[in-house]
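Lecture 7 notes: from sequence to structure.
We start with the chain below.
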Amino acid sequence: MVKNCIWAVVFSTVAALLQSVLLYRLTIYGAVPDISLGILVFSAYVNGTMSGQVTGFFSGLFYDFLSISPLGLYTFIRTIIGALGGLLRGMFFLDKVMLPMLLCASATILKASMIFGLHFVFSGTVPAYPPLTTPVFWVELLLNTLLAPFLFGFLKLFKPLLMSEEKN
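Predicted structure tokens for the same chain:
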């Protein structure tokens, strides 16, 4: 489990850097696909709750240092998403298209909902993420959903690094 978490955090860190450096230049309505969230969802789904929580915590901590958000915001959000994604382990057959799309879309909606809710609780510190009033959420949701099958297919190439032995 430790090896899987370390590699998932490494992949997520590289994806977060790519998002902030390269994909930032290719935005559509200011939205960038959240590839590191897809990596977290994949890792949590194939390895379980504990791995999802650990991966979510450390990848969220790195994401907090990378962003201008308050320290702990993405750590909290990604830990919860990792735990919930891990709860789904073994419940569904991981097909090539529909389940990755559904998992990434659900994680994106959950992330946006949590940020939106935390904005009301901590209105002065948490940046607003209004999903219904701007196209940013909808474009990010569409991008994350459409890229999910390709991302999951790519991550399956790294089975020995990202998946626990009982799932190989």
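Points to note: The radius of gyration is 15 Å. The mean pLDDT is 86.
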